[in-house]
Every structure is written in C-alpha cells, then in structure tokens.
Specification:
- The chain has about 600 residues and is α+β, with helices and mostly antiparallel strands.
- Helix 4 packs antiparallel against helix 6, helix 4 packs across helix 17 and helix 13 packs parallel to helix 14.
- It is globular.
- Strand 1 and strand 2 form a beta hairpin.
- The strands form 5 sheets. Strands 6-9-10-22-21-20-17-11 form an 8-stranded mixed beta sheet, with helices on both faces. Strands 1-2-3-5-4 form a 5-stranded mixed beta barrel.
- The chain starts with 19 loop residues before the first strand and ends in a 9-residue tail after the last helix.
- Helices cover about 30% and strands about 25% of the residues.
- It is built from 18 helices and 22 strands.
C-alpha cells in the first residue's frame, strides 16, 4: 500500500464499498455526535467523511485531532446509513470507518478559519494566504484561473498563434504608468525596468518575421492599487499579428474571448458574434464610459434644444456657450420623489451641486391635475425643471426619451468633456437602484475610434490618449495636416459588463509617422531614438503592417468567478498599500547589497 494514500478524498464511491483504503489530507471539520467522531478529511480533490466510534482502534488518536491537522487515515469504505447521504458531495454516499490514524502535520491555533468561507479581514487573509487558499471558494477560483489560462492557450494555438516568452529585464518606457526599476550591479548608476507590457518586443517579433505571437505575459506597473487592478503585477493574454487590419484582429480574437466565456459562464448568456462596434465618442455620449455596461438598458440623450432659451435660466445660460450641452439620463420606474431625493443626495456626495430631475405621472389619476382640470388626460411632469420650462417643453423631453407615467429623467449640464464621467456614474447608480441590470449575462462590445491625442490640462500640452504605438487614422497626412485633438486612432478595446477586458491597436509601423506622432506629444526624434531605438531601427528594415491586443487574464477570471475584487482570483496578491504581507515585501536592502549596487537610500523623513 502507498505510504500516504490509495485514493484521493474526492474519488471514493459505492464501487469501493467494503474495501480497505488509505487517505491523507487536512481535518476540515470534526464533529462529536454523542461520542461518535465524524472527521471531514479534505485534500485538493474533495472531502470524505471518516467515522471513529469508541470501538475503533483509532478512537483515542481521533480525539486528539484539531482543525487543519494533516493526517493519514486507514479504514474501510462503507455505505452511509439511510437518510445520512449527502448529495452535495462527490463522496456523499459513503464514509470511512477509521482503523488507524497517523498525524503527519499538527496545526496550531488558526489565525483565520478554513471551514465556512466566512468574511475575514483582508490583511489577515493575505498574511496567512496559505491558509486562505485552503478555503473552498478561493481554492475553486484559483483552479478556475488555471482552466481559463489552459483554454486561452488551446484556442490561441488553434488559431495558428505560437507562444513566445519575452524578456522581463528591459528598458524603461513611457507607456502611461511608472516603471519598476531594477538597479544594475555591473553598470553602476544604470537601471533595468520590469516591462509594463511586452509591447515593443512583440512588435519586434513581427519585424523578425514571426507571423502570429501570443503569450500569457506578466506585466509590472507601479500604480496605485484599486479593486479592479492588482498592485505591482498582473497577467494578460498578449497577441500580435502581421499583415492585418483592424477587422482581422477582431476576427481572430472575438472567438477566443467569446469561447472562453461560453466555456466557463455556467450557462449565462454571452453576446453572440459579431459583437457591436461602438465608436468611443458614441460610448461617452450614450453611456458616459468607454467601457459601458450594456446590461444596463439606460441610454443617455442630448436634450439641449428643449432647454435653450427656456425658463430654466441655469441651463439656458449654460447653453449660450457652444461647447455646453444638457444630457438626460432616463430612469424607467424611478418617478418617485423619494428616489429623486436619494439621487440628489448621492450626486452631492460625489462632489456635484445635485441632479436636476423630472417626474412623470398619469394626469387622469393625479388629484392635483384633476382638481385643476377634471378632464385631464395624458402624462404630466413635475419637479423644478418641469415647473420652469413649462408643459410643452416637458412633454417634448418625455417624448424624446420615450418615457411613461411612473418614470423619471435626471439631467446634467455643462461641458460634456468634464461631466461625461459623472453622467456615466449616475447612469450606473440609477440602474442599480432601480434593479434594471440583468446580472446573469455577459454583454460584450468593441469600443473603436479612440482619439489619438488628448489635452493634458496639468502640463498644458497634447499627450497620447491611449497607446503611443497605434496608427493614426489617415497616417502621416493626418498627423501633418489635422488638429491633433481631432485625429482618431486604429485603437480598440473590448468592454464587458462595465470592465475593460482587452485593449489593442493597429500599429504605427512607419518611422516618419512614428517620429511625427511623438513630436506632437512633445518628444523629439532624439527621444524616440533613445527610448525606442530597437523598434525605430527595425522600422527602417522592412516593417510589415501589424496589430494586436492584450486581454486582462485577472479580470476575465474575476468576471467568470463572479467576484468584485481581483485579489479573489490571484494566488499571492499584495494589499492596498502594495505590500506582500506573506513574504514581507518590500523590505530594506542590506548595507552590502546597497554597496554592490552603488546606491545610497535617501528615504523621506517619517
């Protein structure tokens, strides 16, 4: 017999009834039922119920067991007594009558319970992550992650992509976030950087003649943590293709991402192909977000014409400026004053002066309307805005939005570039409060036509708005003849349920266009040569048109697992302060290490 086990804790069934077996695992739960001990023995594969009664030769040993002891149990398989079966367990029809117990690893008092999956402080969970990972839900999430990665690999290879591994130690690159720097001992005063993404290397692979690349790539960014972004490092399904246009990338990637979701969605509907293509500007106007949650049925509309020159002077004065607009956020079923007051308070909590609103009602059933006109008919509107602009304009707003009695509309006004994000948050909040979102589906869309550049108000300069390596629509001619802030890029994202799942673009592979694009963003040719010399040189020796994208593995798994936090799908994540509490990182370097690296620490005063 094997030293530790003949079977795993998830393998036994009625077919082994009467057989002698050996199991090893953790004591998941121990129950004393009138002097009979029930030990739920757990390993990676499942749980088996083991029973020791006073007649068992191992009873005294069983009495000494505690939660999370690692033990070897020898015993006989027997059918559970009628009425005690557990259909929720793979081994729920049998139990083991214990004949011998060996303690392989004792456990002290637990800093957090493994049984039950109850909530526990995050810092404790991360410090004792090896215990946290034993818990059923987190263990299942990590196994799901592995299956999703396997599925991605198989699907990519099935599309003719080949897997490559690109360097981890590389050069610093301005890609939108801070680099993690690694000092060089051999070259004093010089530094490597951990890659924010394999962007340059995968493009160089296309220069080198490899037609279809992919990698499950680790990426490193020194960013502030948040729930939908792991601090420090994350993983992405990274791809690149030669001789492609935008639609070719869509045709290759949509089946991969859709297929992964269909495989692991547990029956939840997934948007069928082809996915909608939504221009960035349209997404911002309709949804207030470039990663809209399309499960939310609310579509915002521009209703400026109904307020221009109206009696509501606040909006009327704003609209005297051409750049200003008034947007309406429909709220089906939200036509109650209490709901309007809640939304107004929420807006003020978000730093806004409030939310204007209209509430729509059935005039034939409204006492106030009937008192004024016993023959009142149709839908009326009330609220400060309706009262100020009058019934005709109010009705025009209602008709445009397609609302009915019992509905409401909320309004934001000003420069759309400044209020669009808040309007998107309001759209989301309204849908959540009114329970309009179908939580049990995955809604996908391609967001396309991103702006190539944006205005950086802090630095008073034009910046890249997304990926600096994307091809501008119109190429070099657009860069030399158009207002930079009007140029769109061959740049695209995959949005799903309010998250950006993937981002990519067709690349700018012409050296003169690359230099011009960086000049517009304030980088001279010498900077391009210095920072991107390898790729810049490669573009001069026969560069194929190419494009690609990267999908966030962590976010994909988070959505499929039904989690709200990426730390629930990562093995050993850091906390919100970017600390690894388990391994004690970051930690001070020793004086010897610093001398070897020719570095002196100039830490800020506490």
């Amino acid at each position: 017999m094997h030293r530790y086990r003949t079977h795993t804790c998830g393998a036994l069934g009625l077919g082994e009834d009467g057989n002698s077996v050996r199991l090893s695992g953790w004591c998941h739960r121990i129950r004393d039922h009138g002097g009979v001990l029930f030990i739920d023995l757990r390993d990676h594969y499942g749980i088996t119920q083991c029973v020791a009664d006073p007649d068992s030769p191992a009873f005294k040993a069983a009495e000494k067991l505690r939660s999370e002891y690692v033990v070897r149990i020898d015993g006989a398989v027997r059918k559970r007594p009628a009425g005690t079966e557990n259909p929720e367990m793979a081994t729920g029809l049998i139990e083991i009558y214990v004949q011998e117990i060996e303690v392989l690893g004792a456990a002290g008092d637990l800093p957090l319970p493994v049984f039950g999956d109850q909530p526990y402080p995050e810092d404790t969970r991360l410090k004792y992550r090896f215990l946290d990972l034993r818990r059923e839900k987190l263990h299942a999430n990590i196994m799901l992650r592995g299956k999703v990665v396997d599925s991605m690999r198989q699907r990519m290879k099935g599309q003719g992509f080949f897997e490559f591994q690109t360097p981890i130690l590389t050069a610093s690159s301005p890609e939108g976030a801070r680099d993690f720097l690694v000092p060089s001992r051999i070259h004093p005063g010089r530094f490597y950087a951990l890659p924010q993404a394999p962007q340059q290397y995968k493009q160089l692979l296309m220069m080198a003649g490899f037609d279809r690349y992919f990698q499950i790539a680790p990426c490193f960014r020194d960013e502030d943590p948040r729930a939908d972004r792991l601090p420090g490092e994350f993983y992405q399904l990274d791809i690149e293709m030669s001789f492609v246009e935008q639609e070719d990338v869509f045709a290759a990637m949509e089946p991969v991402v859709r297929g992964v979701f269909e495989e692991f969605a547990q029956g939840k509907p997934v948007t069928p192909s082809p996915w909608p293509r939504i221009p960035y500007a349209e997404a911002m106007r309709k949804f207030g977000s470039d990663k809209p949650d399309l499960r939310n049925p609310i579509v915002m509309q521009n209703v400026s014409d109904h307020f221009r020159g109206s009696g509501f002077k606040v909006f009327a004065r704003l609209l005297e400026s051409e750049k200003n607009e008034v947007w309406a956020i429909p709220a089906p079923g939200g036509g109650q004053r209490t709901f309007a007051d809640r939304m107004n308070s929420w807006a003020q909590g978000e730093g806004q002066p409030g939310l204007g609103y209209m509430l729509f009602f059935d005039r034939a059933r409204d006492e106030t309307s009937l008192a004024a006109d016993p023959a009142a008919q149709g839908v009326g509107g009330r609220g400060p805005l309706a009262n100020n602009i009058g019934p005709e304009r109010t009705e025009a707003v209602r008709a445009q939005l397609g609302l009915k009695a019992g509905d409401a509309a909320f309004f934001v006004a000003g420069d759309p570039d400044k209020f669009a994000k808040f309007a998107g948050l309001a759209r989301t909040k309204i849908a959540q409060e009114l329970k309009l979102v179908d939580e049990n589906r995955f809604e996908f869309a391609w967001i396309v036509d991103f702006p190539m550049f944006e205005w950086n108000e802090d630095d008073k300069k034009v910046d890249f708005s997304h990926n600096p390596f994307s091809m501008p629509q119109g190429g070099l001619e657009a860069l030399t003849t158009k207002d930079p802030l009007t140029i769109k890029a061959f740049q695209y994202d995959i949005a799903c349920n309010g998250y950006e799942l993937a981002s990519g673009g067709v690349r700018n592979h012409r050296p003169e266009a690359m230099v011009k694009a960086f000049e517009i963003a304030g980088y001279g040719e010498e900077t391009v040569v210095e920072r991107f010399g390898g790729m810049y040189r490669a573009f001069h020796y026969g560069a194929p048109p190419h494009g690609g994208m990267a999908a966030g593995v962590d976010r994909v798994v988070m959505l499929l697992a039904g989690e709200q936090n990426l730390r629930e799908v990562a093995l050993f994540p850091m906390n919100q302060r970017a600390e690894d509490l388990l391994m004690g990182a970051p930690s001070p370097a020793t004086a010897k290490q610093l001398r070897e690296l020719h570095i002196r620490v100039n830490a800020p005063e506490a």
